[in-house]
Amino acid sequence: MATKLKRTPLYADHVQLGAKLVPFAGFEMPVQYPSGVASEHRAVRERAGLFDVSHMGEFMLTGDDAEVFVNHVVTNDVSRLGPGQAQYTMMCREDGGIVDDLLVYKFADRIRLVVNAANITKDFDWIESRLGGYGKLDVELSDESESIALIALQGPKSAEILQPLSDIDLSRIGYYHFGEGRVAEVPCVVSRTGYTGEDGFELYCEAPAASRIWTELLEAGSGTLLPAGLGARDTLRLEMGYPLYGNDIDDETTPLEAGLGWTVKLDKGDFVGRGALAALKARGIERRLSGFVLRERGFPRPGYEVRVEGSAVATVRSGSVGPSVGQGIGTVYLPISATEPGTPIEVVIRGRAVAAEVVRMPFYKDGSIKR
């Protein structure tokens, strides 16, 4: 029997807007609206786009030892955060394999973890198991995924659209910082984060209020803002070289191989996976996630064979035609000897070896983020 798909609090809004809905991570999600993926992608790059990302998971940790415990289960150093700051990090197994990539939000009295939708149950069980084996700590862990909605407003016009609806001074929220206030009279956490390479905000609110915020943002951005689906979200993040769990990273890849070593703070003290990652760093990685561009027309889909000097060495992890770069782009784990930018490779597309070249990511370099 097929598993019944979940729906976000904005499902009715997507239907009303004529979205094409598809299964994704156990949810029925909009992949695109009548405007189409390319138009939605360009709207985000040039003006603004509005995404429903309420399928993501949110865990809350409270108690005097919450920060100590979170620092034990993630690779980055949470102790460096002050209240109102967010951080991108990994959770790893003991062998260094990536359980998930996630965001950590540090509040004055609690910590929120935002995890990938497909990994909500896996991540919660994994964190809970670590909590039970770490000793006596004052930590309470709860799953708030069902009660929290998440809307992402992304693009260079985002602040201009959002500010009239919010009582928060958005100019005071820096990149990877957040504030608490109201949007459309609804209590919200407003975070200057996103996964598109453009300036923007992610808005966390109680699920029943999501439709009001969504509707008022669309009205405020009329003529400028487009609702955008998973299709544009994927091409936007790929053009930036941002990894997608299940494609570019997974339990069998490590942060060091994925080019995410900057999220691993070996000097912070012990954490899950530290020993394996330290040993891997010492001996050196044998492969690395690399970007490539096609030198001919083609669409490099995930799973396509990649060849170096005529020999198959790997498969495409993420691939598409980037609307902003105008060519086929993708990622692949290559042997270290083949990762130098400019190295020629081939991608087998429908039985034909198509010429490609290794490049340094991001593919798109003109985003509006101000770090």
Concise summary:
With 371 residues, the chain is an alpha+beta fold. It has 3 domains: 11-55 and 147-239, Probable tRNA modification gtpase trme, domain 1 (Gyrase A, domain 2); 57-141, Alpha-Beta Plaits (2-Layer Sandwich), CATH 3.30.70.1400; 286-359, Elongation Factor Tu (Ef-tu), domain 3. Helix content is 20%, strand content 33%.
* Rg from Cα: 21 Å
- Helix content range of the residues, please? 10-25%
Sheet having the most strands? 6 strands, mixed
**pLDDT under 50 segments (min length 5)?**
none
Distance between the termini: 48 Å
Shape: globular
The CATH topology of the largest domain comes to: Gyrase A, domain 2
Helix and strand run = HEEHEEHEEEHEEHEEEHEHHEEEEEE
Structural class: alpha+beta
What proportion strand? 25-35%
- The count of helical stretches stands at 8
Structural write-up:
- The protein folds into 3 domains: about 10-55 and about 145-240, Gyrase A, domain 2 (2-Layer Sandwich), CATH 3.30.1360.120; about 55-140, Aminomethyltransferase beta-barrel domains (Alpha-Beta Plaits), CATH 3.30.70; about 285-360, Aminomethyltransferase beta-barrel domains (Elongation Factor Tu (Ef-tu), domain 3, Beta Barrel).
- With about 375 residues, the chain is an alpha+beta fold.
- The chain has 8 helices and 19 strands.
- β5 (about 85-90) and β6 (about 100-105) form a beta hairpin.
- It has a 6-stranded mixed β-sheet, with helices on both faces.
- It has helices at about 10-15, 35-45, 65-75, 120-135, 160, 210-220, 230-240, 275-285; strands spanning about 20-25, 25-30, 50, 55-60, 85-90, 100-105, 110-115, 140-145, 150-155, 180-185, 185-190, 200-205, 225, 285-295, 305-310, 310-320, 325-335, 345-350, 350-360.
- The radius of gyration is 21 Å and the shape is globular.
